[in-house]
């Protein structure tokens, strides 16, 4: 009897998530105006990361899906037809149980849901894959970063290869899940015509891309490295000039992706 009680109380424990920060009027993380929750935790170590303070797991503000949703819906009047809730990071998929519950509850209220992910935790292994498959049923659009198209360069830039990230994108393409693809343009790392052309050709093979964005590398996160006592890996590398950004946009054919389903 005691064992049964213990099991019951365990199963009724609410799933909680760890939130790094909130943006109440996000304009760039998905369609329309959005409530953006940046979750804590990331295993990648992108050299250009401007949020190294999101890397640690198990810290931040602990919330239940109901608590976060209650906070978000206060801003519902500002969302219009396109806006809604975005979950970002850090790496959001490290807290997939939490997002699944949050998005289920959000969709039950007719709220538009957007998942911002770098895809690193993606795996066909269980239990992750079943959860991901279910999460996709409650996700209107995903923002997916491709850090580098070349597996070797990807590892050099982030500490991980891009194999499972591309598998996730393929799964989403094959199953009709819409996405925006984003690529950070970093001089001396990703800003090479060959790699950009390769990435552009790859994106053309994905069926469910609504939008492609080139994000110019910036140095706004440098002070956080100083505060955390970390060396800044891209010391001396300046943001790309406008011509290189335009060149990347041409090679990724960003203008061909003219909108998004919503
Ligand atoms: S995936 Fe995002 S949060 Fe993680 S290191 Fe890279 S840029 Fe930073």
TrEMBL record:
<feature type="domain" description="Radical SAM core">
    <location>
        <begin position="28"/>
        <end position="261"/>
    </location>
</feature>
<keyword id="KW-0949">S-adenosyl-L-methionine</keyword>
<comment type="similarity">
    <text>Belongs to the organic radical-activating enzymes family.</text>
</comment>
<keyword id="KW-0560">Oxidoreductase</keyword>
<dbReference type="GO" id="GO:0043365">
    <property type="term" value="F:[formate-C-acetyltransferase]-activating enzyme activity"/>
</dbReference>
<dbReference type="Pfam" id="PF04055">
    <property type="entry name" value="Radical_SAM"/>
</dbReference>
<dbReference type="InterPro" id="IPR058240">
    <property type="entry name" value="rSAM_sf"/>
</dbReference>
<protein>
    <recommendedName>
        <fullName>Pyruvate formate-lyase-activating enzyme</fullName>
        <ecNumber>1.97.1.4</ecNumber>
    </recommendedName>
</protein>
<keyword id="KW-0963">Cytoplasm</keyword>
<keyword id="KW-0670">Pyruvate</keyword>
<dbReference type="InterPro" id="IPR012839">
    <property type="entry name" value="Organic_radical_activase"/>
</dbReference>
<comment type="function">
    <text>Activation of pyruvate formate-lyase under anaerobic conditions by generation of an organic free radical, using S-adenosylmethionine and reduced flavodoxin as cosubstrates to produce 5'-deoxy-adenosine.</text>
</comment>
<dbReference type="InterPro" id="IPR012838">
    <property type="entry name" value="PFL1_activating"/>
</dbReference>
<dbReference type="InterPro" id="IPR034457">
    <property type="entry name" value="Organic_radical-activating"/>
</dbReference>
<keyword id="KW-0408">Iron</keyword>
<keyword id="KW-0479">Metal-binding</keyword>
<keyword id="KW-0004">4Fe-4S</keyword>
<dbReference type="InterPro" id="IPR007197">
    <property type="entry name" value="rSAM"/>
</dbReference>
<dbReference type="InterPro" id="IPR013785">
    <property type="entry name" value="Aldolase_TIM"/>
</dbReference>
<keyword id="KW-0411">Iron-sulfur</keyword>
<dbReference type="InterPro" id="IPR001989">
    <property type="entry name" value="Radical_activat_CS"/>
</dbReference>
């Amino acid at each position: 009897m005691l064992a049964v009680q213990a099991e019951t109380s365990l199963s009724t424990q609410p799933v909680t998530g760890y939130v790094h920060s909130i943006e109440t009027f996000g304009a760039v993380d998905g369609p329309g105006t959005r409530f953006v929750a940046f979750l804590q935790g990331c295993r990648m170590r992108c050299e250009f990361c401007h949020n190294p303070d999101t890397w640690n797991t198990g810290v931040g503000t602990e919330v239940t899906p109901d608590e976060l949703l209650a906070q978000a819906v206060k801003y519902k009047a500002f969302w219009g037809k396109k806006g809604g809730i975005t979950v970002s990071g850090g790496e959001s998929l490290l807290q997939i149980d939490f997002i699944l519950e949050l998005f289920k509850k959000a969709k039950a209220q007719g709220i538009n849901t957007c998942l911002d992910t770098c895809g690193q935790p993606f795996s066909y292994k269980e239990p992750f894959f079943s959860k991901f498959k279910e999460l996709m049923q409650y996700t209107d659009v995903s923002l997916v970063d491709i850090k580098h198209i070349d597996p070797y360069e990807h590892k050099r830039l982030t500490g991980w290869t891009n194999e499972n990230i591309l598998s996730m994108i393929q799964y989403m393409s094959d199953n009709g899940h819409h996405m925006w693809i984003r690529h950070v343009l970093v001089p001396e790392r990703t800003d090479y015509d060959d790699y950009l052309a390769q990435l552009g050709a790859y994106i053309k093979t994905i069926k469910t891309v609504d939008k492609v964005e080139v994000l110019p590398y910036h140095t706004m996160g440098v002070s956080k490295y100083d505060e955390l006592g970390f060396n800044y890996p891209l010391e001396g590398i300046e943001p790309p000039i406008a011509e290189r950004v335009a060149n990347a946009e041409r090679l990724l054919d960003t203008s061909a992706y003219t909108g998004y389903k919503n």
